[in-house]
């Protein structure tokens, strides 16, 4: 996709007609050569923003994929770094790229096998795979995995304006996915416009977190003066 080393149109079509788990197993060998991989600029901005509130002891990358975010944790956590994902294919790619020293666990984020194990949980670009009704359970799982005082942090980008081509592209993508899931099984959950910051903040607070929003200045401001990107930091009491 967008490069000779990326997946072909046929490979993307096969992925899109699979389940989320199977789709990512298929995409894993070429995932890091697609636009879906979290950009280094985002990873660096999050690491810089979290640096002043660290260091942390133990960190978890939620829905770690091929491991891009694990490097952020490695620079912030003094004792251990863990990645969790439900795609065996993505974890295998992460394992080959990271080597020893990082624990990789295959598990569903909605049923985490951890209790009070981490001081920091991060996640990058995974929330489109969760329906709005699944967020309370997901956030409760993260809350339980954190120690008291631990933080759950993730970046969010400001949604594009209706006047921009990006707005209509994402709207069209979500519409196509809804039609696909209405007529084909198993479903492939990936909606770019379902993760709304106001609703997310409310669900985090209901799960027992205190929520802070921090601008990521590396990405500048929109025309109305609001940040183009923010770091959401949810602190367990």
What are the key terms here?
237 residues; alpha/beta; Rossmann fold; 8 helices
Characterize the structure shown.
Residues 60-150 form the Methyltransferase domain. InterPro entries: Methyltransf_25, SAM-dependent_MTases_sf. The protein is an alpha/beta fold and 237 residues long. It has helices at 9-16, 20-27, 40-50, 70-76, 88-98, 135-145, 165-183, 197-206; strands spanning 56-62, 77-85, 103-106, 118-123, 146-157, 209-215, 229-236. It has one domain: 3-Layer(aba) Sandwich (Rossmann fold), CATH 3.40.50.150. Helices cover 36% and strands 22% of the residues. The longest helix is centred in the last third of the chain and has 19 residues, at 165-183. The mean pLDDT is 89.
SSE layout:
Elements: H1 9-16, H2 20-27, H3 40-50, E1 56-62, H4 70-76, E2 77-85, H5 88-98, E3 103-106, E4 118-123, H6 135-145, E5 146-157, H7 165-183, H8 197-206, E6 209-215, E7 229-236
Parallel strand pairs: 1-2, 1-4, 2-3, 4-5
Antiparallel strand pairs: 5-7, 6-7
Helix pairs in contact: 1-2, 3-4, 6-8
